[in-house]
Design goal:
Length: 361
């Protein structure tokens, strides 16, 4: 619990522009490029005797450098001239929607051993995966404590996602009759560190069935709530609940994994890149994220706590079937769940089929 909480708090500090100490065999001082300001840069400098380097995902680094980069690990380290260590420049380097030519050209250098944990912490904070880092000085821990800055173990950052998923607990339950499914209740799950909350929308009594219908639905503010035509999420959400009502039972897991788990702000950035010609996959990668950052151990844990271990999965995505089975849920059948394009989301659906392997035929 304490380790999960430390990671969660470190992410919150990075979001507000404060540096943190990433502890481990080769400790680093970190500052998120997206939220770096004058105060944070001064605090960073006080914790390390060396100038910082900027860690970027390889795809983003190649765009900044305007040339291919050799990927030897999860991150590319750029040594920035002092003139580039300014908040507005760091923001534009981190965010491809603000792309602009740099007045000076950074050079690549060797990325520190804890680079994977550094970028993972940015992702857990739902920040762009771009981070200033420098080796911590010999008195960094004492100086960080004096300044009231947080320290978190690199190993705890890398273990956070599976640990948080395995630690999900039911915290609330209530009846919630819906227009298309009167016999519905909602069960809320929360991680032990008080982080993201996930919901199970339960129609009828699926726990009494041998293999109930189940849908994994990642939250989509724009599609589910606003009815955006850019995706098919709203149609999939309403269609799944309607079908469960017709069958008399089912479970829709509403997962707090917006934009394939890059978060709403980053999804809007991805939309901006799509408007410039990127497809869904390339837009996520241009931001420094993977094509799909979701963790389906969350869904498996929720199903197990609901007493459901054999299911028929309502999905077009074979990866969901494989992920649930790897987590101990028996998927006895995949039930197709496709909706026709609407004239706006045609290319989005085509990309799902072509590049993500979704079965839409």
């Amino acid at each position: 619990m304490a380790r999960l909480r430390a990671v969660h708090r470190a992410g919150a500090e990075l979001r507000r522009g404060s540096p943190i100490l990433l502890a481990g065999p080769a400790p680093l001082v970190l500052l998120a490029a997206e939220t770096a300001g004058p105060r944070g840069l001064d605090e960073l400098a006080a914790l390390t005797p060396e100038p910082p380097v900027l860690l970027l995902a390889p795809v983003r680094a190649a765009s900044v450098l305007h040339r291919p980069v050799e990927q030897a690990g999860p991150a590319i380290a750029l040594r920035l001239p002092a003139a580039l260590l300014a908040p507005e420049v760091l923001h534009s380097i981190a965010d491809p929607t603000e792309d602009q030519s740099l007045p000076l050209h950074p050079e690549t250098t060797t990325a520190p051993p804890a680079s994977a944990a550094a970028l993972e912490l940015m992702k857990l904070a739902r920040l762009l995966p771009a981070v200033l880092c420098a080796p911590a000085g010999p008195s960094a821990a004492e100086e960080a404590a004096r300044q009231g800055l947080l320290a978190v173990e690199a190993a705890d950052v890398l273990a956070y996602r599976p640990s948080a998923a395995a630690g999900l607990r039911k915290v609330a339950e209530a009846a919630a009759p819906l227009d298309s499914a009167a016999d519905t209740r909602i069960v809320a799950f929360r991680t032990e560190d008080g982080g993201f909350e996930h919901l199970a929308i339960i129609v009828g009594a699926p726990e009494a069935q041998e293999a109930p219908l189940v849908r994994l639905h990642s939250e989509c503010f724009t599609g589910d709530l606003l009815g955006s035509l850019r995706c098919d999420c709203g149609a999939q959400l309403k269609g799944a609940i309607r079908r469960m009502a017709e069958e008399g039972a089912g479970v829709l897991l509403y997962l707090a994994q917006e934009g394939r788990s890059i978060g709403l702000v980053n999804k809007l950035r991805a939309y901006a890149l799509q408007d410039r010609g990127f497809d869904t996959l390339d837009a996520n990668r241009a931001l420094g994220w993977g094509a799909d950052e979701r963790n389906f151990l969350v869904a498996a844990t929720m199903l197990q706590q609901l007493g459901i271990r054999r299911i028929r999965l309502l999905t077009n995505n074979p990866d969901k079937v494989a992920a649930l089975e790897a987590c101990g849920i028996e998927v006895v059948a995949r039930e197709p769940h496709a909706f026709p394009p609407n004239g706006v989301n045609d290319e989005y659906l085509a990309t799902k089929a072509r590049r993500f392997g979704h079965l839409l035929d």
